[in-house]
Amino acid sequence: MDTSNPAVFVNGELLPKFIGKKVRTVVQVNKCDGVVTAAKSTDDQELTVNGLPQVPLMNFVEVIGIAETNRSINAEIWTDFGTTFDTNSYNRLCQLANGEFRNLFL
Amino acid sequence: MSVNLTANAIPSIIGGDVNSKPLVQVLDLSLISSSSNSQQQRYRMLLSDAVSSHQAMLATQLNDRVRTNRVKKGSVVQLLEYICSPLQNRKIIVVLNMETIIPDCEIIGNPKPFGESNLPTQKTSPDKVVQTSSRGHNNNQQQTSQTGHAAQSFRPIVQPAYQPPPVYKNRGAIVKNEAPARIIPIAALNPYQGRWAIKARVTAKGDLRRYNNARGDGKVFSFDLLDSDGGEIRVTCFNAVVDRFYNAIQVGKVYTISKGSLKPAQKNFNHLKNDWEIVLDSNSNVELCPDEDDSIPKQQFSFRPIIDLENVDNNAILDVIGVVISVNPSVPILRKNGMETQRRILNIKDSSGRSVELTLWGEFCNREGQKLQEMADAGSFPIVAVKAGKVNDFSGKSIGTISTTQLSINPDLPEAHTLREWFDRVGKDSVSRSISKDVLPGGPKNEIRKTVSQIKDEGLGRSDKPDWITVRATISFIKTDTFCYTACPLMVGDRQCSKKVTRVGDARWQCDRCNQEFEECDYRYLLQAQIVDHTGITWVTAFQEAGEEIMEYPAKELYLLKYEEQDDDKFGKIIKSSLFNHFVFRLKIKEELYGDEQRVKVTVVKADKVNYSSESRYMLESISKFCRQ
């Protein structure tokens, strides 16, 4: 496993803190036209993902890429997680990974 | 070492002097076992001033001085606070506070029991003389009357059968001590206390009740007191006494109470931590203390986490605090006695990961219930503290109010603040399982989560009853030489017999329980496997149901695959595919005798596939709990 370039676990609230950095997040796809995707983060914020191909609507996708702005990510790697996903737990993970347990992650 | 005990200490105490601080010696020390309550241990002492000795009782708050050997036989002590109570026709010294000066000392002097040698012997003889003469007189009279009249006539003559109480010559005139009694802590109250006074706040006031029993009609009301040491006691008034005090007593106010009697507490109704209760009578004194005494708390709670309630007995009375997550409207309920009352159901949750139904009855629905409804409708999640709620185990466990219950909304208590912080940070979104709802089929009710290492570390399975726990772990090894046994296929009632059957001849089987022979037997799992988690590894045994959950293959087919078809390849593949699967195991742990030694046996009762969502939630809760420590 290549750990040389770790990605930070983010949700909508944390994304602005890592602009220009490599981040990873799970979002639910709302609109997808093959170039720009509108998606909802695990803390119910609207985000934009660039570079996602056609993904079934309402599916959960994990996106790893560089945070472009405080609301968008340029996707490098993406994985379809399917239709069910526990957004609550993932959201808590993001909070803990960047909060008191940050030193366990980066 | 020689020490001078206070001269004449004993006679002065008996004489009523309770203000000097005499030096006396403990000649004897013994424990009085109380027949009614083994917790109420009392020590009796024989105190001496080197010349006289006398019985004394040690106040229970000093009991640990005896237990820690600071006071023992021979100890020389200085009495700091003590009283002298009349008990029957003797006097008993009660020691409320003392200081040990010399813990070990030889008996000083040659003390004699005080009082007995003082009985004036000269006095008894004239009494006796009086008695015999009067008796003689009687006989004469009776004889004359009998001879005179046929009918019997009795001349009632009082003959004292006892000696008059001895008079102590070496005391002066006895003056009744009218000074106000000293305030003592509620915890020190007992029936042997001569004169006492307590200062406490009323924490609860019961309703005025009328009753009718063999002695006639009556009325009664009770109120609860709390003092600055945290001691609590119930006070009851009957009939005329009710009229005196009912209106005067108000919740929250502080009163000084004296001259009541101490009776054993009625544990059915009185849930306070005190073996005694006070009954006031016409001599009792109740005075309002107008100045605000901040040293006395307004109320005392001992909250239990909701998760503990799952194991509490039905009808237990306890305190609980939680955040109100739902409030239902009041509904009228017809009670058993035909009366209609109101009921409201609330749900509260706390940081133990559980929620519980709180049922409000009667006035609670309209008062606190209405307020909580309004607050919930406005979107806030108020905190409610329940004092003296009753546990009901009708469907799961729930808490209901009783007449002595007290509810506080958003109380100013440290527990409430901690709960509020927890709720705002984590609790709002955390999932709490309700202990009040009916169990979903297949869902475990009393889930105690443990790790593999805790089985050994905590010595689970060693008590009389087996321990049931839930562990999330991975199968790391499955013993393949014997993974099943030959079982009886016959039905006993609606269940399969399943007893191990023995071979008879070449191709037949016999079951000892069913007493039958048959051709085909069943094969049931008897898996020996190892499960491992991040803390350790342990052997477990899994029977048929759990075995099938783990192997995902029927035992009989697996047996046939290995022994009949001898397809080692396929067999190996199936075994391999069951290794390193993650399960949430329900384990039964019990120590059993294997030959000569006691071994702890772990049985898998159920092997559930891991529900990642709920496991994640469980782990998040554990993380929050971990952080709070």
Would you mind describing this structure in some detail?
- The complex is a heterodimer of chains A (106) and B (629).
- Chain A has 106 residues and is mostly beta strands.
- Chain A is 11% helix and 42% strand.
- In chain A, strands 2-3-4-6-5 form a five-stranded mixed barrel.
- Chain A is globular.
- With 629 residues, chain B is α+β, with helices and mostly antiparallel strands.
- Chain B is 20% helix and 36% strand.
- Chain B contains eleven helices and 34 strands.
- In chain B, the strands form seven sheets. In chain B, strands 7, 8, 9, 10, 11, 12, 13 and 14 form an eight-stranded mixed sheet that branches.
- In chain B, a hairpin with a 3-residue loop joins strand 27 and strand 28.
- Chain B starts with 8 loop residues before the first helix and ends with a helix.
- Mean pLDDT of chain B is 82; it is low at 117-152 and 438-445.
- Chain A binds chain B through residues 86, 88-89, 92, 96, 100, and chain B through 429, 612-613, 616-617, 620, 623, 627.
Sequence stretches where pLDDT stays below 50 over 5 or more residues of chain B: 117-152, 438-445
The description of the largest β-sheet of chain B is:
8 strands, mixed
Count the strands of chain A?
Answer: 6
Q: Gyration radius of chain A, to the nearest Å?
A: 13 Å
Q: Biggest sheet of chain A: strands, sense, closure? A: 5 strands, mixed, barrel
Q: What string gives the helices and strands of chain A in order?
A: EEEEEEH
* N/C terminus separation of chain B: 54 Å
Mean pLDDT of chain A: 91
Structural class of chain A: mainly beta
Percent of residues in helices of chain B: 10-25%
Mean pLDDT of chain B: 82
- Structural class based on helices, strands and sheet pairing of chain B: alpha+beta
Number of helical stretches of at least 4 residues of chain A? 1
Shape of chain A: globular
Q: Supply Rg of chain B.
A: 37 Å
- What low-confidence regions of chain A span 5 or more consecutive residues with pLDDT below 50? none
Q: Can you count the helices of chain B? A: 11
**Share of helical residues of chain A:** 10-25%
Strand order of the largest sheet of chain A: 2-3-4-6-5
